[in-house]
TrEMBL record:
Name under which the protein is recorded: Sulfatase
Signal peptide range: 1-23
Organism: Chitinophaga oryzae
Keywords carried by this UniProt record: Hydrolase, Signal
Domain of life: Bacteria
Sulfatase N-terminal domain: residues covered: 29-295
Family according to the record: Belongs to the sulfatase family.
Gene Ontology MF terms: hydrolase activity
PROSITE patterns the UniProt entry points to: PROKAR_LIPOPROTEIN, SULFATASE_1
InterPro entries attached to this UniProt entry: Alkaline_phosphatase_core_sf, GAG_Ulvan_Degrading_Sulfatases, Sulfatase_CS, Sulfatase_N
Length: 495
C-alpha cells in the first residue's frame, strides 16, 4: 500500500468520524411509565381475563407490544423496583434486595443517568419503596423528583425531554369488602385458580381485587387523557406494567408465577410495533437499559438487564432468551429475629425450577400470623387468607393450606404448560431428574456469573440488615382476628 493510499484512507476515516460527531442526534422521546402495585399478568382484558374491565390497558396493548412472559426480579415491592431502577439482579444490589430497607447510594440508577443527560424527572406515589432513602443519605426518593400528580408535572416542565413514573397504589391491599359487587363484578363470574379454594369468601376477595384493578385502569385513562391534552403524546413512549404479582396465598413474596409474572405493555405509535404480542422472556430489569437507550445514554456495564428495543422497535429483531433467573430474600419482618426466606428460581418457556435455601423456615412467615401472606399482621380483612386459616383442618381445605402456608422442600419443579397453576411439584420425580439437574446447572452458572453470594461464598447480609418499619416487628392482630384465631394481642419477632 502506497503512502498516498494510506493518506486517502486516513482522510476518509477522519471525515467519517467528524460526520458522526457533528450529525444531529435524533429527538429524544419522553418516557411515561404507569405501574400498578401487585397485579398479576393475567388480570386484564388484553391478557384474556373475561371479567375484569380494563379498556385503557387494552387500548395501549392495541397500540403497542404486549409481553406475555414478563417477570419482576423479585416478588416484593422494594427489591422489584430497585432491580428495575438499577437494571440489575437483586443479589447484586446489597441491601436493595430486601423490603423496607435502603437502596445503596453507590448504585447507578436510570433515573439519575437520564437526569444528568438533560431529562426532566418526576414521579408520583410510591416510586421506590417501601424503605428509607434518607437512611442512606439520599436526598430524594430514587424514583426522582416527587409530584402530587402528573398534571402538576406537566405544568412544571420546561421543554426538555422528560421521564415520569406514575406509581399507583392500586390494586394493593387492603380491599374494601364488597367493593367488587358494588362495582358490578359478580363473585360467581371470577376465575378461581387451582391453588385457592373455590369458596364464596375467596370469590368475593378476588372480585374486590378486580375492583381495585379497574380503579387502576381508570387512573391510567386519566393519565392518557392528560398526555393527549399536553401535546406530548406523539413523542412519548408509554410503558404499562406492575411491580409484582397479586396479594393472595402463593402470590406476592413467592417465586411462583403468581408472585413474579407481571403485565408489561410498551407503546410508541408510529415508531414501535403495534397490536403485537411477544412471548420473549424478559424482566423489569430490562427497562433501565431500554430507557437509557431511548435517551441516548450509555448503559453502565454493571447492568444485567438488556434493552427491549430490538423486540418492540420496527425493523429490529432480538434473539430469544432461553430463561430468566429470579430471586427472593426478606420480604416482610414476619419471622423470629427478622429472618427471610431466601430462594432463587429459573423460568423457561415451559418450566419453573425453584431452590429454597432455608427449607426449615416457614415460607409464609412464622405461625400463627403467616405474615408474608397479606394481611401480614391480620390487622385488616383478608378473606382468602382468613378462610383458608379458619378451615385448614378440614379435608377439603387442608391441601390449599399446605400449598400456601406449609413448609416446602429445598427444590421445586413445575411443568408450566401442563400445570399452569403450579400444583404438582415434580422435583422428586425421577422421570424429571435429568431436566431438573439441567435447570439447576443453568441457574447455578448464571448466579456464579452474576456474583450471587448465595453461591459464591460471599457474605450474606440480608437477614441482618435494617428494616425501617418498627411496627412490623411487634405485630398486633385486630380484635376480630384475635377472637377468630385465638391469637395474642401482640407478637414480638425480636425475642
Amino acid at each position: 500500500m502506497t503512502i498516498k493510499t494510506i493518506r486517502n484512507l486516513a482522510a476518509c476515516l477522519l471525515l467519517c468520524l467528524l460526520g458522526a460527531a457533528c450529525a444531529p442526534k435524533k429527538k429524544r422521546p419522553n418516557i411515561l411509565m404507569i405501574m400498578s402495585d401487585n397485579q398479576s399478568w393475567n388480570h386484564a382484558g388484553c391478557y384474556g381475563d373475561k371479567t375484569v374491565r380494563t379498556p385503557n390497558m387494552d387500548l395501549i396493548a392495541r397500540q403497542g407490544v404486549r409481553f406475555t412472559n414478563a417477570f419482576c426480579s423479585s416478588p416484593s415491592c422494594s427489591p422489584a423496583r430497585a432491580a428495575m431502577l438499577t437494571g440489575q439482579d437483586i443479589w447484586r444490589i446489597e441491601e436493595g434486595a430486601n423490603l423496607w430497607g435502603i437502596l445503596p447510594a453507590k448504585l447507578k440508577l436510570y433515573t439519575d443517568l437520564l437526569e444528568a443527560s438533560g431529562y426532566e424527572l418526576g414521579f408520583q406515589g410510591k416510586g421506590w419503596g417501601p424503605g428509607s432513602f434518607t437512611a442512606n443519605q439520599r436526598k430524594r426518593n430514587p424514583a426522582g423528583n416527587e409530584f402530587k400528580n402528573f398534571g402538576d408535572f406537566l405544568s412544571a416542565r420546561k421543554g426538555a425531554p422528560w421521564c415520569y413514573w406514575v406509581s399507583s397504589h392500586e390494586p394493593h391491599r387492603p380491599y374494601e369488602v364488597g367493593s367488587g359487587e358494588r362495582a358490578g363484578i359478580h363473585a360467581d363470574s371470577v376465575q378461581v385458580p387451582g391453588y385457592l379454594p373455590d369458596r364464596k369468601d375467596v370469590r368475593t376477595d378476588i372480585a374486590d381485587y378486580y375492583a381495585a384493578v379497574e380503579t387502576f385502569d381508570r387512573e391510567l385513562g386519566t393519565i392518557l387523557q392528560q398526555l393527549r391534552e399536553s401535546g406530548d403524546l406523539e413523542n412519548t413512549v408509554i410503558i404499562v406494567c406492575s411491580d409484582n404479582g397479586w396479594q393472595m396465598p402463593r402470590g406476592l413474596a413467592n417465586l411462583y408465577d403468581f408472585g413474579t409474572h407481571v403485565p408489561l405493555i410498551i407503546s410508541w405509535p408510529g415508531k414501535f410495533r403495534e397490536n403485537e404480542t411477544t412471548d420473549h422472556l424478559v424482566t423489569l430489569n430490562d427497562l433501565a437499559p431500554t430507557f437509557l437507550e431511548l435517551g441516548q445514554v450509555a448503559v453502565p456495564k454493571e447492568m444485567t438487564g438488556k434493552s427491549l428495543l430490538p423486540i418492540v422497535a420496527k425493523g429490529q429483531t432480538a434473539p430469544a432468551r432461553d430463561f430468566v433467573v429470579l430471586g427472593r430474600e426478606r420480604h416482610a419482618f414476619v419471622r423470629q429475629h427478622g429472618l427471610g426466606y431466601p430462594g432463587r428460581a429459573i423460568r423457561t418457556p415451559d418450566y419453573l425450577y425453584i431452590r429454597n435455601y432455608e427449607p426449615d423456615r416457614w415460607p409464609a412467615g412464622d405461625p400463627p400470623l403467616y405474615g408474608d401472606i397479606d394481611p401480614y399482621m391480620l390487622h385488616y380483612p383478608g378473606l382468602a387468607k382468613c378462610y383458608i386459616m379458619a378451615h385448614k383442618d378440614s379435608a377439603a381445605i387442608k391441601p390449599f393450606f399446605e400449598l400456601g402456608f406449609a413448609k416446602r422442600p429445598a427444590e421445586e419443579l413445575f411443568d408450566i404448560k401442563n400445570d399452569p397453576d403450579e400444583l404438582h411439584n415434580l422435583a422428586a420425580d425421577q422421570r424429571y431428574a435429568k431436566l431438573k439437574d439441567s435447570l439447576s446447572a443453568k441457574m447455578q452458572a448464571h448466579l456464579v456469573a452474576t456474583g450471587d453470594p448465595r453461591v459464591t461464598g460471599g457474605r450474606l447480609i440480608w437477614d441482618g440488615t435494617d428494616y425501617f418499619s418498627e411496627i412490623d416487628k411487634t405485630p398486633r392482630p385486630s380484635q376480630e382476628s384475635q377472637r377468630q384465631f385465638k391469637l395474642d394481642s401482640v407478637y414480638n419477632y425480636l425475642k
